[in-house]
Amino acid sequence: MLGYAIRRIAAAVPVAFCVALLVFALLYLAPGDPAAVMAGDAASPADIEKLRIALGLDRPFLERFLHWLAGLAHGDLGTSVFTGLPVSMLIGQRVLATAMLMLTAMLISGAIGIPAGTLAACRPGGIADRAVLIGGVLGFSVPVFLIGYLLAYLFAYRLGWFAVQGFTSPFVDFVGFLRTIILPAATLAFAYAALIARITRATMLEILAQDHIRTARAKGLDEAYIVIVHGLSNAATPILTIMGMGAAVLLGGAVVTETVFGIPGLGRLTVDAVLRRDYPVIQGVTLFLAFLFVAINLLIDLLCAAIDPRVRQ
Amino acid sequence: MPLLDIQDLHVAFGGLPAIEGLSFALEAGETLALVGESGSGKSVASLAMLGLLPASARVTGAVRLDGIDLLTLPPRERQLRRGRDIAMVFQEPMTSLNPVLSIGRQLIEGLPAADRETRQAARARATDLLAAVGITAPARRLDEYPHQLSGGMRQRVAIAMALAGRPRMIIADEPTTALDVTVQAQIVALLRDLQEATGVALLLISHDLALVRQMARRVVVLYAGRKLEEAPADRLFAHPRHPYSAGLIAAIPRFGAGRGARLAEIPGTAPGLNERGPGCVFAPRCPQAAAICASPPPATGVACHFAGGAA
User: Fold this and answer.
1) Nearest to residue A24, comparing CAs of A90, A88, A70, A81?
2) Which of A43, A132, A169, A278 is the one with CA 20 to 30 A from B55?
């Protein structure tokens, strides 16, 4: 297990490097001149040129990339053009809200999606199966902002159970945290739960038809025990893997959700930075989210290895 | 009273009969072989006995164990009897074990409550079971997983799992088919030794007549879902009375038959589920078939108009 973990972590390093290169190249190739944006509307072409040299924007691509990479190694993601604050600090201020939003959404989705998909697979064509099918299509096709506004209107505005806007840290006020996080997390969880339910259903259908399940039944074991212990233990690897890949859906949805619910998270930071053409911030947040995605998938791979002995080999 | 008494068992899928009127009995400690080619209904019969057929299967008749008809028991009670009264060893050891649970866990979950009062007792019993099926270093194997074992070892584990519930009867569905020839012989010897040691009755399901001849005291010949003949093994192999049995025995490859000698075969193929009429099911392939074969064969004894009725 330890050997596998080391190999897997080592394999994540080149991935992270490629991600960094891609993020840098993407903004390098993007249209628009950061120097012109920074200098403002009143600046003359000469001023802009001076600023460009000062920022090192006149240097060749490779030199700029290596310079940026060297900064990264020290945890320096650059400085925000708009606020003048270090990008790493901006991210640090907002990472908690986004992390909590994603974590809560993952918990809600797993708690709904896995049992729903399992129930559906136990009786194909039954009521649970049809509910999952319909719920899956709905969860996937209704846009996040629509779900968000509907939930906010109903549960926050009409019923007053939850806060309409904002975010409270769980370390400051846990009840307040729940009041602010549940609606956005539920909004975000819709599509993700649908994804998990569908993949759980498909995987469990396949596994419950396998020979070893018949063996388990021949032993006289309880059907619920067979489904949960023998079925889900085998289904865990494919389900977790899809959950990892689906984390991208969650990251994308977080941007919209944070905007709808006024949560000061990384999604909002990104949107604001894009609107202001704050290049260093865009670059920093994109890189951070990409690394987060790689880290989530690394974690899930290790989890799979802990569950399935064949992966460890 | 026999240990297992099957009376007039019928199994149908979507109106099509897979097994029609199968009856036979198994005495305590006995080995009975259920013989037939693929599609003859051997495996369906065994799954029907355990109650493991899909809900779409229609099962009628009686499967009595100690006089209690398993088919009329409530599902929960039936489930509790599986593995305790009748255990099963399946054909494919590569897929019949759960790949993500340790051998020990899969053995221990099948133990009766009395055998696993403490963790240590359960592990000790599981170790004994592995030792009983001839697995070396059994205590260490408990923490291994199926993919770390060879096919023969896995089949030994599957047999140990069948023994875990202390059953009175084991159904072995083609237990050696998926194994190498040398390993087959070991598994056969193991099954025989275990039966001698524990007195468990064995229902051997096979199309391998050489294996059946080594193991079984009595043989039931199944063809297209119907029983054609039932006889003591030595009688059947010396004097088969149904033309199908005779054909099967003639088709056993013989050592020393001489180079270039043709293997005997039964021409044609077995009828599908929707091609079975009221007459003799074997008639289309039978060398002795006559006009009378279109009418139902004798219901008792050998199912052939020419076999002289009573067995």
Assistant:
1) A70
2) A132
Question: Would A83 be classed as within a structural domain?
Answer: no
Is pLDDT of A219 > 60?
A: yes
Residues A168 and A281 in one domain: yes
From the list B81, B96, B100, the residue facing A215 with the nearest CB is: B96
Same domain, A180 and A291: yes
Q: Do the Cβ atoms of A220 and B79 come within 8 Å?
A: yes
Residues of B near A (CB-CB distance < 8 A)?
A: 50, 52, 79-84, 87-88, 90, 92, 95-102, 109-110, 145, 147, 158, 161, 164-165
Kindly state whether residues A153 and A33 are assigned to the same domain: no
Instruction: Tell me if A233 and B98 make a contact (CB, 8 A cut-off).
Output: yes
Q: Which residues have a Cβ under 8 Å from the Cβ of B163 and sit 6 or more positions away?
A: B87, B129, B132, B133, B170, B194, B198, B200
**Are A14 and A141 part of one and the same domain?**
no
CB contacts, 8 Å: B97 with chain A: 212, 215
Co-location of A14 and A107 in the same domain: no
CA nearest to A23, candidates A295, A307, A290, A204: A290
Q: What is the ipTM of this complex?
A: 0.87
The pTM of this model reads: 0.83
- A12, A38, A73: which is the final residue of a domain? A73
Q: Are strands B218-223 and B226-232 parallel, antiparallel or unpaired?
A: antiparallel
**Which residue of B81, B84, B97 is in closest CB contact with A215?**
B97
Cβ-Cβ contacts under 8 Å, B100 against chain A: 233-234, 236, 307-310
Residue B306 is encoded by which pair of tokens? Answer: 């020419």
Both A223 and A153 in a single domain?
Answer: yes
Q: pLDDT tens for residues A96-153?
A: 999 999 999 999 999 999 999 999 999 888 888 999 899 888 888 888 888 888 888 8
**CA triple A223-A226-A228, angle to 5 deg:** 110
Asked if A223 has any chain B CB less than 8 Å from its own CB, the reply is yes
* Stretch 116-175 of chain A: residues touching chain B, C-beta under 8 Å: none
The residue written with tokens 């759960």 in the block is B98
Clarify whether residues A48 and A151 are in a common domain. Answer: no
Q: Is A88 within the bounds of a domain?
A: no
Domain that holds residue A12: 2-73
Q: Are residues A114 and A171 in the same domain?
A: yes
Q: Which SS3 state, helix, strand or coil, does residue A52 take?
A: helix
